[in-house]
Amino acid sequence: MGQTLHINGTGIFVDERGPSGGEPLLFIHGGPGNPSWDFMESVGDLFAGRGVRVIGVDQRGVGRSDALPEEPALSVPVLIEDFEQLREALGIGAWSLIGHSSGGAYALDYALAHPGAVTRLVLDCPALDTDATDRHRLPRAAAMLDAAGMPEEAARCREIAARGDRLTAEDRSWEAMTPLGAQYLDLFFADADGRRRYEEIADAAPDELDWSKSWSHRVLLADMYVDRLPRLADLTMPSMLVHGEADLVAAPAIVADYRAATRGSVATIAEAGHFAFVERPSAYVDAVLGFLRG
């Protein structure tokens, strides 16, 4: 079902499904460092069954791709060049993109760097300004910490969210939420069933998928705090933002700025959080295909 291609100096795993003549759709995962497994196992075959040539990629250094090479140093521009060389290697003239979470930022960067190669752009719960994300998510984590009997930890989350200066990776805001322990993952799902489905898919991953490689992408955390919202106005192709109604990453301010800058459509998936393609796969595919073929 997959193959490793030599792209831009390293081996990159590609999971391609659907007819070779179908409309090509590249999935760009986030994390940073989360592989494409959860997306492809949840909706890869659903897209393929409806005539889409869907392409899931484990970015360099993660998942089933080769270990991260020392050179060139990992950066978002290197990932963008990987995607472009992959397009050429697959013989695709132009494709549509889905960028999830931090992958939404990479998809935006790719679309702006190579507009002629992108037919349509789907931003899935995009992390386009993590300052806005943190200010939206930290109060929710604080409420959970209060409920768990940790008022000091809750106060720490609220203090960070209320700071006057822009938050950066140096503020390490995610550490303020780690006292939640196993509950931390609940921030990403609408309900317990969604989390259960996600964990079942993760547990079913093949042995050759090395989850520990994800840590090699920690260097990209700083890039998540770059405010890409002003760049949305530069898009030249049709775009859509899709998000779960309970998602905490694409904060309301991000969705509002997207609407204002692009006048693109917004699809809200009911009873879903950050991983709508896992939690509500059929509704997710319907929404995306409605846009791609609209």
Overview of the structural elements:
- The chain is α/β, with parallel strands linked by helices and 294 residues long.
- The chain folds into two domains: 2-129 and 208-292, 3-Layer(aba) Sandwich (Rossmann fold); 133-185, no CATH class.
- It is 38% helix and 17% strand.
- The chain has ten helices and eight strands.
- The protein has an eight-stranded mixed sheet, sandwiched between helices.
- Helix 1 (37-49) packs across helix 10.
- It is globular, with a radius of gyration of 18 Å.
- The mean pLDDT is 97.
The oligomeric state of the chains shown is single chain
Judged by helices, strands and strand pairing, the structural class is alpha/beta
How many domains make up the 3D coordinates? Answer: 2
Strand tally: 8
Order of helices and strands: EEEHEHEHEHHHHEHEHH
Helix % is 25-40%
Proportion of beta-strand residues: 15-25%
Main sheet record: 8 strands, mixed
For the residues shown, what is the average pLDDT? 97
Globular, elongated, flat, extended or rod-shaped: what is the shape?
A: globular
What's the number of helices?
Answer: 10
